[in-house]
Structure formats: structure tokens, C-alpha cells
Amino acid sequence: MLESFRQYIRHRRLIADGDRILVAVSGGIDSMTLLDLMRQAYGGRIAAAHCNFSLRGAESDGDQQLVEDYCLQHRIPLYTVRFDTENEAREHGESIQMAARRLRYDWFDGLCDKYGYDKIAIAHHADDSIETFFINLLRGTGLRGLTGIADRRGRIIRPLLFARRDDIVSYAVAGGVPYREDSTNATLKYLRNRLRHDILPRLDSASNNRLAQTMEQNLMRLQQAQRFIDARIRELRPVALHDHVLDLSVLDADCLAFELYELLRPYGFAPETVEDLAAVLNRRAEDCDVTASGKRFEASEWSAAIDRGRIMLSPRIVEPFREERIAEADPRIEWLSVDELPDSLAAPPNVAYLTADALKFPLLLRQWREGDWFIPLGMAGQKKVSDFLIDAKVAAVDKARQGVLVSGETIVWLVGRRIDDRYKVRQDAGRIVRITL
Fold first, then answer.
1. pLDDT in tens, 372-400
2. Looking at CB atoms within 10 Å, which of 113, 256, 347, 399 has the fewest?
3. Domain boundaries, the chain
4. 30 forms bridges with which residues in the sheet?
5. What is 2-213's CATH superfamily?
């Protein structure tokens, strides 16, 4: 396997003469095999980097200890770091997986800048690439997501993409490479694990054990198709896009949604948003709908507005949140009795019905803060506002504008999203308020 490893790196030109390589090592079998192969192939030109994400307690610490022992035994320079990943995820409104990815790659880049490493070696292998194809196929990510895992991107290289998981296991066992098994790899809670342990083995059996070879050919063709598309978009971009103004007249009507997405992707527009935008443009073309002009579509940091055959792109500006006190006599408050309530309390997002018996006036409308919590309507226990916004997949720019309505020290309404269950309308309520913000 060592010779195949060297040949793959030479053939793909992943490492140049004199390159110094930082090897990302988790302690699992893939990364420990990569480190062992890199040690034999490149000796003193490598160093190892290990992230402890503090997610699995003593198990995470055991992973770090194994990596430290191996590097000490083989005199490999080692960098370690410990992250409070859960707190980072909350503060940035990300999933645990996204926070961990951001933390580790930012740290790897910082090490390269500080200590002069040229490449970052990651232990993804051929089975990972196949699994990624099927995950993206099920999620509907489009062609770009179906090309598998690239063996290079910037500083990052993946020298194990030629190898199957079975090859790695055989090498590690035969060579006595130490490793630890992450207990979460066995659970079927995650889609990747369900694919790995159940779905893909069935497909492999159905294809007479030719799944890997077939997928290798499929991924190669898809990668070639994506490179062709990328070249076309590079040619189209300077023709269609000038100073954040997109000229729709140069786009192909039959491929409108696709070309729009590729051109707007660097601005952070989600595929669903671009599809909605394309649908509006198609309706305008078919029905001569002049009302399409002025319609606006939002990404996290950019806004796109239709304007007479063009799309005007502009940065989204987050206005400072203005705190204000709301008195009992405020015109935005309507006082009601239970008998005066409508048959349905369904209301627009800017309207809330609250039992007023325990409200303490004046109410305070302010921006939410880290540590804020409430009991969302329909739930029995309290929930942090930050967690609620993460679960609701609220964009970062919208989080910065999220308001809460406070009575005394208690949040009674996460404005536009959910009232506190303790203030829901009850039949025995003495007074009820209808608040419009």
C-alpha cells in the first residue's frame, strides 16, 4: 500500500519537492494510517495536528493521548488544541458539525501560516467519496455535490482517495498501526453511518461487488462535467455580471435557474431562493407580468432585486436594534376580554395574543442576548433563544435583528416567531392583549 500511496501522490502531483506537510490526525484508523504512511514516505517533512473537540468526554481525551504517544514514539512534531465546540456552535448559530469543521480548518490554516507548512493532508478515502455522493444525491445538492470529494483544494490534499476502507484496515492491522474507534461511528442515527453499514453494502452485493469500480467511473465523469460547466460559467460571468448588476438578457432561458444559481452562488444565495427567483422571472416572461420588477430575494449577506431585465445585487445592512418601552396605553396594544377573542387565534407573525394578568408594564422591546431563555408555546421546558434560532435555521443577519418582548425579567414573546407558553391565552384569563409590532 505504501508504494500505491507514493504513486497516487506523484500521479496527482499532490506534494511538490520540498513541501512541508501538516497531517490532520483524529486518532481513528483512517488518519492514523495516513500519518503512518506519511511518516514512511516523507519523514522529517511532516508534522501532526490533533483537535480535541470536547464532545465525547474521556473518549476524546483518549484519542488525544493515543496521537501524542505515537508522535512521541516516532519523533513527529505534534500540535494539539482543545475547543469548546458546543459553545462555539451556540454563539455562531451553527450545528455542532459545522462549528467543528470551521474551528479545525481555521486552526490548520493558522498553523500553516505560523510555521510554514505548505499542505494539509486529510484522511478521506474512496469510500468517503462514494458516501458523500449518495448523501448529496439524497439532499438534492445538484451536480456539484455529486462529484465526490476532491483530492486537492487550496492547501488541502487527500492522498488516501485511491484506497478503499478495507485496504486501510488491512494495512493498519498488518502494520500494527494503533488507532481508536469513535463510538459514534456505529450508531445508525447519522445518514452517513446508515449508508456505510446498511445501504451501500446492499448495493455492492446487488452489483456483484462492483459498486466501488462503477462509482469511481461515475465520479470521474461527473467531475469532468463539472469542470466543463465551471469553464462555461467563467466565460459567462464577465459578460453577464458588472458591478453587482446581472444582465438577464445574456442568459439561456432554458437553463435560467441553473445559470442564475452558478452566477449567484458566490453571493451566498441558497438553491431554493434562486429557484423562486427563476420562477418569478419565468412567469414574467410568459404572462408579461410587470409587477415582477422590484421583487426582492435575500441571502444571508446579500439582497437581489429584479429591475427591468436586470438583477440588482446589494449588501444587506443590519440596522442597530432600537430598544423601546411599550406602555399600557401604547396604540400597538389592544385590550380584550376572553369573550371578545376571534374564533381562531392564528395571526400574522407580527401579532401576538397574550394573557395580560401577569404582565408588568411598561414592556421592554429589545434585541435578544446570549443567555436569554423562554418556554416556547407548546413546550414544557425552557429553551435558550440561541438554540431556538439555530433549530429554526435563522440566517445570521436576521438573528442580529431578532427582538424579544420582555415583562420584568421574563421574555413573553420571541417577536415574530413564538410566544412564551406561560403567557398563552387561557379561558380563565382576566385580561388579554393583542400586540402588533
1. 999 999 888 899 999 899 888 787 777 87
2. 113
3. 2-213, 243-315, 324-436
4. none
5. HUPs (3.40.50.620)
